[in-house]
């Protein structure tokens, strides 16, 4: 029996509407979850929303809204996005304002404190509100955060609780040595190893409630609330029912060997070092399983920004082109690890070339001939097994897996042009039937492999084959 698999996205801040960058991450994670299900694994899929911190509080105050009322509205937008993006039914959606999550965070704090890893001190630091992270001078470019150069750094000077991150340098390096595929891709893994090798500084894990009230209360200290990162990390285990539901946690964390985490390149330090050290401190002996780091989506070569007016709305794309069209583009034309450009012009061009004129036209041609030449559906019992895409999927190279399927489609197109069954049928119907039967069987193979990427399209093609009927246009030309 295949062991269970636990897969998660990061959980985005709810200080703005969902954008195409988050759509990329959740579609990547869902593609991998669907792939693992097809391979016979039971899968726990987790996503959700990060609802505490200064960015959220300021946004709510700016809109003159109660913070809880504000996050309720935006959490619903993110949750409603899941079916729009074709995320598998049954996905778990965790919110950091949920009462069970807050209880789990407080218990996690107590365990880290019991390990001697939490202490209090006064400090002064440069802080980027955009990252919700402290910044050292070596991380700044022209005195600004490299990721949020449009934001001014703030100076925080107060008494906070700290986590003894410095204690975990050797343990983290030992973890990296033992797990050569812990972070994917390799160049991101090298990046975090170099960061840890340079030495670690303890980081703040609380804020004074009098200055920043929107957060989980620190146990036994009503003057402090938890720093948003410490709170948010724990969602990966609170969603499993930790610490109360021992059976669920055993199955999905220990039996699964940890969690596969999808995250953006701006979260390498947080996910692969800070969170792993916190797990060690809490006494959870199994670290994350793998951390998959994707790049940013740019628009016409520029970082997406509301101020520049170049933010892509995934909901609008789906409304005009369909869920599977967006999933296809994110899988095939957005690099799984590097920064990639997304414009509506590029999307439309790929849609027409690859889907309307490509897949859609191929399906229509083959099934129209099948409908005309056969009175019953083609027998698929001797069909070849689907192309083994695991060689790419297990390395999270979704673009290469999809490209291989489109190469298979090109072979079928060429075969139709060379063999011309639509002409052969006029003089040799039996030979034409053999040709079309082969085409239908190969199309069935391709449709099966499309399931993780384009689940609705895969289903429509397979149903049309079983009905021996040309389907309605899968992708109308735009």
UniProtKB/TrEMBL annotation:
EC number assigned by the record: 6.1.1.10
Domain of life: Bacteria
Keyword Membrane: no
Keywords for the protein's UniProt record, in alphabetical order: Aminoacyl-tRNA synthetase, ATP-binding, Ligase, Nucleotide-binding, Protein biosynthesis
Coiled coil spans: none
Gene Ontology terms describing biological process: methionyl-tRNA aminoacylation
GO molecular function: ATP binding; methionine-tRNA ligase activity
NCBIfam families associated with the record: metG
Role description: Is required not only for elongation of protein synthesis but also for the initiation of all mRNA translation through initiator tRNA(fMet) aminoacylation.
Record-given protein name: Methionine--tRNA ligase
Highest classification ranks of the organism: Bacteria, Candidatus Magasanikiibacteriota
